[in-house]
Specification:
This protein is of the alpha+beta class and 136 residues long. It has helices at 60-69, 122-130; strands at 2-10, 15-20, 24-31, 34-41, 52-56, 83-84. The chain is built from two helices and six strands, in the order βββββαβα.
Length: 136
C-alpha cells in the first residue's frame, strides 16, 4: 500500500485518504462518536459507496498507525477497530501468506479463539458452544 504523509483531504467523502493500493483508497471519516476507516473502490463505484468499513475510537493518529502497519495484500483487516461496519468480511488476495493474521474475528475485532473484550460477545459464545464448552 502506498501511504500518504500527510493524509490527503477528500472533499467528496469529507475525510482523509491515508493510503491506497491497487483496488481501493483507504480513508477515515467522522462517523458519530467514532472514526470509520473505509475502503473506497476506484471509479464510479467509489462515488456513492464503500466496500469495507471499520469503526475506531475518535483518534485519527491511532487509525493512521493501524493503517500504516497493515498490509492489505496479505492481511484481511487492519487491527485496532471495535466494530466491523460492513459485510462480508474483507479477504486479502494473498491471505495464505499470513494465516496467523487472518483467523476468524468477532464483530468487535478480536480473534475469536483469543476471546473478546466485550462481555457476552455473540461470536465468542457461539464458538465456545460449537466446541462443547458451556460459556455460562
Amino acid at each position: 500500500m502506498k501511504l500518504h504523509e500527510p493524509p490527503v483531504l477528500d472533499t467528496h467523502w469529507e475525510g482523509f485518504e491515508l493510503g491506497a493500493d491497487a483496488t481501493h483508497r483507504y480513508l477515515w471519516i467522522w462517523q458519530g462518536f467514532n472514526i470509520r476507516l473505509i475502503a473506497v473502490p476506484y471509479g464510479e463505484d467509489g462515488l456513492g459507496a464503500y466496500d469495507h468499513g471499520w469503526c475506531y475510537p475518535r483518534a485519527p493518529e491511532l487509525v493512521a498507525e493501524h493503517v500504516a502497519a497493515w498490509d492489505p495484500d496479505t492481511q484481511d483487516e487492519p487491527d485496532g477497530w471495535h466494530k466491523r461496519a460492513t459485510s462480508p468480511t474483507r479477504r486479502a488476495p494473498r491471505r495464505e501468506e499470513e494465516p496467523e493474521r487472518n483467523r476468524p474475528r468477532c464483530a468487535h475485532g478480536c480473534y475469536i479463539a483469543d476471546g473478546c473484550r466485550t462481555v457476552n460477545c455473540r461470536d465468542v459464545l457461539e464458538h465456545a458452544r460449537s466446541r462443547g464448552i458451556d460459556p455460562s
